[in-house]
């Protein structure tokens, strides 16, 4: 049953009434420099915020063995976060509606050189409509929206008439293992909503992602005898060329793939890190690159990984130096497959109505060529996994920022979605 217009108007007004507190809460989240492995303090803050609202609480660690044994588990390396997962559960008096998971991540990517930021990255400054800060968009605004959409209902004396599980995870930016751990813990729902910064659109398709390193060894000599040695950094550039050729082949394979064949370049290889050598006057003996590449939905991560290894090995066989010292490829982070959200679910229809009421426009969908935690719920829970969130600029870049007007609109849409999907009942006094 669709929401009566009068109730929808009350919910929208309630979101607006609480919005200044929502912005302040988002700013509080941004102040935590919650890069990979440093999310313990913010998760403590989240735990207290959830518990203060009367949610039933659980906090648990990653189970490395179970993650490694699952087909969706990404590679666990020394840098893997040990911060806990935090879950808050709303339980209704009577389970008459459909259950829901609201999920968000607290981990953020590194800020990079601070002098390239207009404001310090963990100082959440507001200028006009924009809230600046690392993680302001990706995805602490969405994290706060999960909570404040529920607050908006409570403010008018209502609560969901179904179980709503609010999940705060880590490792979204590096493995996706935090979301997978909630699945392994046994949390399930009839639908999932994750408010990533998606420009007020619904993600229809999402690529998988692999992280890997390639290490090349050289022959060190003094620079005056350079011809007698073998420069590992120069050789690494040649390996990158081979990887670019693989990237081109994968992009050429887009024909016949819905949601991808119309994109100019759906598969992106990024050489994100490079290090090597020990001395400017010595021919470098080693070089290591850290890479990320996307893969199409339906392509197994193990299959793509084998193609990468084969491409590097084939190139090395024909290279005068590398044929004797083959590069070593290792997978060390994301090992995740992509997904497609099939159209026609009731959850999508409910979100479409909520979005139209909140924004005055029809809900659009699109493909995004990056990792999203919705893959866990789409692939392994096999439920509608909706990724939908606010307008942003420069996520993962300098001066990351999120539109506050957009945050208000998507929070309104989320509150309307929860009310219709879960149903409502009067707030429990217990």
In short:
The chain has helices at 5-17, 19-30, 40-52, 64-69, 136-155, 177-185, 232-252, 301-317, 346-359, 374-381, 404-422, and strands spanning 56-60, 85-90, 100-105, 126-127, 130-132, 158-160, 164-169, 192-194, 202-206, 208-217, 269-276, 286-295, 328-336, 339-340, 365-368, 385-387, 392-393, 401-403, 424-426. With 430 residues, the chain is of the alpha+beta class.
Structure description:
With 430 residues, the chain is an alpha+beta fold. It has two domains: 5-206 and 338-426, Zn peptidases (Aminopeptidase), CATH 3.40.630; 208-336, Alpha-Beta Plaits, CATH 3.30.70.360. Helices cover 35% and strands 22% of the residues. It has eleven helices and 19 strands. The chain has helices spanning 5-17, 19-30, 40-52, 64-69, 136-155, 177-185, 232-252, 301-317, 346-359, 374-381, 404-422, and strands at residues 56-60, 85-90, 100-105, 126-127, 130-132, 158-160, 164-169, 192-194, 202-206, 208-217, 269-276, 286-295, 328-336, 339-340, 365-368, 385-387, 392-393, 401-403, 424-426. The strands form five sheets. A six-stranded mixed sheet has the order 1-2-7-3-8-16, with helices on both faces. A hairpin with a 7-residue loop joins strand 17 and strand 18. Helix 7 packs across helix 8. The longest helix has 21 residues, at 232-252. 48% of the residues are buried. Mean pLDDT is 95; it is low at 224-228.
């Amino acid at each position: 049953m669709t929401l009566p217009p009068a109730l929808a108007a009350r919910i929208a007004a309630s979101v607006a009434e609480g919005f200044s507190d929502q912005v302040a809460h988002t700013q509080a989240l941004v102040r935590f420099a919650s890069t990979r492995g440093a999310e313990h303090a913010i998760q403590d803050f989240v735990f207290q915020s959830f518990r203060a609202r009367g949610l039933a609480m659980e906090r648990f660690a990653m189970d490395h063995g179970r993650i490694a044994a699952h087909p969706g588990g990404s590679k666990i390396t020394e840098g893997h976060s040990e911060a806990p997962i935090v879950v808050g559960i709303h339980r209704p008096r009577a389970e008459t509606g459909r259950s829901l998971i609201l999920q968000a991540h607290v981990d953020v990517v590194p800020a990079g050189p601070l002098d390239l930021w207009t404001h310090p990255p963990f100082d959440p400054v507001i200028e006009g409509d924009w809230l600046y800060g690392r993680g302001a968009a990706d995805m602490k605004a969405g994290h706060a929206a999960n909570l404040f959409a529920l607050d908006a209902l409570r403010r008018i004396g209502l609560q969901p008439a179904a179980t709503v599980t609010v999940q705060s995870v880590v490792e979204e930016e590096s493995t996706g293992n935090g979301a997978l751990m909630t699945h392994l813990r046994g949390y399930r729902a009839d639908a999932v909503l994750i408010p990533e910064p998606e420009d007020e659109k619904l993600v229809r398709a999402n690529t998988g992602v692999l992280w890997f390193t390639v290490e090349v060894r050289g022959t060190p000599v003094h620079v005056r005898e350079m011809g007698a040695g073998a420069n590992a950094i120069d050789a690494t550039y040649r390996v990158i060329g081979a990887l670019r050729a693989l990237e081109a082949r994968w992009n050429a394979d887009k024909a016949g793939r819905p949601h991808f064949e119309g994109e100019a370049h759906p598969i992106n290889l990024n050489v994100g890190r490079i290090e090597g050598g020990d001395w400017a006057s010595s021919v470098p003996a080693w070089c290591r690159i850290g890479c990320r590449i996307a893969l199409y939905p339906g392509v197994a991560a193990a299959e793509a990984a084998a193609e990468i290894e084969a491409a590097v090995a084939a190139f090395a066989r024909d290279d005068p130096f590398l044929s004797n010292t083959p590069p070593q490829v290792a997978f060390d982070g994301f090992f995740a497959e992509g997904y497609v959200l099939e159209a026609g679910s009731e959850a999508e229809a409910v979100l479409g109505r909520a979005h139209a009421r909140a924004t005055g426009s029809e809900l659009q969908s699109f493909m995004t060529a990056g990792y999203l935690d919705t893959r866990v719920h789409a692939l392994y829970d096999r439920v509608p996994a909706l990724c939908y969130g606010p307008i942003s600029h420069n996520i993962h870049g300098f001066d990351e920022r999120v539109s506050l007007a957009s945050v208000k609109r998507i929070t309104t849409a989320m509150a309307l979605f929860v009310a219709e999907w879960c149903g409502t009942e009067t707030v429990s006094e217990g």
